[in-house]
Design brief:
13 helices, 15 strands, disordered N terminus, globular, alpha/beta, five-stranded antiparallel β-sheet, 404 residues, eight-stranded mixed β-sheet
């Protein structure tokens, strides 16, 4: 017999054994038609490997959070892993901290930081400080560590993430995370002060963060470019139930970007190194094939090009992923989908449903391409993203019949 566990909202019984599952998340893959051609990015791309897989797969669409809701990457990934994103609210600061290997404790508060450029009147002129390289970003964060002391009763930790991005972690009693961003999200105006939007604990965090950011501005004032600091995504760490305990799977994650390693670590997945390239990420996935029941692979370029509004660049990114696909397919159940849609015509995340492919020997093939139009006609239909894991387990022969 298996073990009864609550997943995702109902009582189900897991079966021992079953096939391995590979989840390939093509970030922001969903799109909208180009005005000149009437084709989406997926429909415009040449994808022989995806086409071959689609021809033997069940197809459908998924809604990351709820109809009309545009998701962030954190909640969208939690939904893919079977966690209701409306119940498990996790901020980007926590994901950034976990992604760079910081071991958080319950109650820690983390915030993402941008190195920024300010003019002589304290107005933001570049929210990313010219996108410094990693070596320069690390140097600047070392300055912050050396020059900004921990306030009384609170432990403070700065860590570089990538390029202009860093993270700040506060540890102490009586901290809350309902604090507004200091990043104004546009140039020409000064950074905003952190303000509490909730309880007394959050008010304490806002005061402490204000002191820290003011001191950080003094430390960076002599820098020619990165002379400011912007804070976003204040979040308190509360660990959800572990992935392995929830599903009975040994899970391994491969992601180039820290935030996606962070969401994998949040649910208890093992990280297979820190790949410096997509080819290296594929090699790590291949190395995990022999000892993992569940492999998660994250591919970022599609989302980046979509947010740039670069339609052709996103098409090229999809074609590059297609060339990686043979190295990711180790048999068993394969899921190919996105965490959300990022149409290049909108240059940002959107609320549109996301194409979904599930390849298994139990699939009901209905189309020959992974595209929005083919997936809308697939046998899976349109489902909530949090139900993808139950479908994956069923296709892998890992769920028992419900009831007598």
């Amino acid at each position: 017999m298996g073990r009864v566990t609550r997943f995702p909202d109902d009582l189900v019984e897991r079966m021992p054994g079953g096939e391995a599952i590979t989840m390939i998340v093509v970030d922001g893959v969903g799109g909208l038609p180009h005005p000149a051609t009437g084709l989406t990015e997926l429909e415009s791309a040449t994808t022989p490997n995806l086409d071959a897989m689609a021809a033997e797969s069940s197809l459908g669409m998924h809604v990351p959070v709820a109809p009309g809701i545009t998701p962030g990457s954190g909640p969208a990934h939690l939904a893919l892993f079977g966690y209701d994103p409306a119940r498990y609210l996790v901020g980007r600061g926590v994901l950034a901290a976990l992604g760079v290997g910081i071991r958080l404790r319950e109650g820690d508060v983390a915030a993402r930081l941008n190195l920024a450029t300010l003019d002589g009147r304290g107005r933001v002129t570049d929210r990313r400080a010219g996108r410094p390289g990693n070596a320069e970003g690390q140097r600047l964060v070392r300055r912050l560590r050396e020059g900004v002391m921990s306030p009384p009763g609170v432990d403070l930790h700065f860590q570089h993430v990538m390029e202009h991005r860093a993270v700040m972690v506060l540890r102490g009693d009586g901290l809350g995370a309902d604090v507004s961003d200091t990043d104004p999200q546009r140039t020409g105006i000064p950074p905003r002060p952190p303000r509490a939007e909730g309880d007394t604990a959050s008010a304490r965090t806002a005061r402490i963060a204000g002191h820290i950011l003011a001191r950080a501005a003094e430390v960076l004032a002599t820098e020619p470019v990165a002379n400011g600091l912007l804070a976003r995504g204040f979040a308190e760490y509360r660990a959800p139930g572990g992935f392995s305990r929830r599903y009975g799977l040994k899970a391994v994650a491969v992601a180039r970007y820290p935030m996606y390693r962070g969401v994998a670590r949040l649910v208890g997945m093992e990280l297979a190194g820190t790949p410096a390239s997509d080819d290296e990420a594929v090699e790590l996935m291949q190395g995990a094939a022999g000892h993992a029941d569940f492999r998660f692979f994250h591919y970022k370029a599609t989302d980046s090009r979509g947010e740039d509004g670069d339609f052709e660049g996103k098409v090229a990114a999809i074609e590059a992923l297609d060339r990686l696909l043979p190295g990711l397919d180790d048999g068993g159940v394969v899921i190919v989908t996105g965490d959300h849609s990022t149409p290049a015509t909108m240059a940002g995340h959107s609320w549109h449903a996301v194409p979904l492919l599930i390849r298994s020997r139990h699939a009901r093939p209905t189309g020959r391409r992974l595209t929005e139009s083919a997936c809308r006609q697939g046998d899976v239909g349109t489902i909530a993203a949090r139900h993808i894991m139950s479908l994956a387990l069923a296709h892998a022969g890992r769920l028992a019949k419900f009831g007598s």
